[in-house]
Amino acid sequence: MSAAPESASSAPQPATGIDELLERVRAGYERIEAQEAYEAAQAGDALLVDIRYAALRERDGLIPGAHVVERNELEWRLDPWGSHRLPQATSHALRIIVICNEGYASSLAAQSLHQLGLHRATDLIGGFQAWRGAGLPVE
């Protein structure tokens, strides 16, 4: 018995480095600077989501009003159709700004949200460190 030939869609993807992967991911959406993220959140036009791990939040503080969602829970908490969603995650049209420490993991997280149909998801260029460096509120 012979195996069925693999279709092009199931063929393994060629290996790539993280820098190339980030470049491809980031080309798929517009990232946001700290001041613009702050203004969008203040206007009620965006949901800030902090995916940093606890030790970084304890060390550096929190962005007032940001929702802390551990990275391993992100998709479950922001899927508008999910049973474990945040109360604010009510629509695929929601503008979500994902924040990590320096703006790397947040890019991959934003791509994952795009795959769930959250096409307005983006991430903060430079992450929390850029937010704090811009003199924006931290508690």
3D structure, described in words:
The chain is α/β, with parallel strands linked by helices. It is built from six helices and four strands. The chain has helices at 18-26, 34-42, 54-60, 74-78, 105-115, 127-133; strands at residues 47-50, 67-68, 96-99, 122-123. Strands 2-1-3-4 form a four-stranded parallel sheet. It is globular, with a radius of gyration of 17 Å. The termini are far apart. The mean pLDDT is 92.
Discrete helix count: 6
Q: What is the helical fraction, as a range of percent? A: 25-40%
Mind describing the biggest β-sheet?
A: 4 strands, parallel
Order of helices and strands: HHEHEHEHEH
Low-confidence stretches: none
Widest beta sheet: strand line-up? 2-1-3-4
Secondary-structure class: alpha/beta
* Cα-to-Cα separation, first versus last residue: 65 Å
Strand content: 5-15%
Mean pLDDT: 92
Compact overview of the structure:
With 139 residues, this protein is α/β, with parallel strands linked by helices.
Architecture blueprint of SSEs:
Elements: H1 18-26, H2 34-42, E1 47-50, H3 54-60, E2 67-68, H4 74-78, E3 96-99, H5 105-115, E4 122-123, H6 127-133
Parallel strand pairs: 1-2, 1-3, 3-4
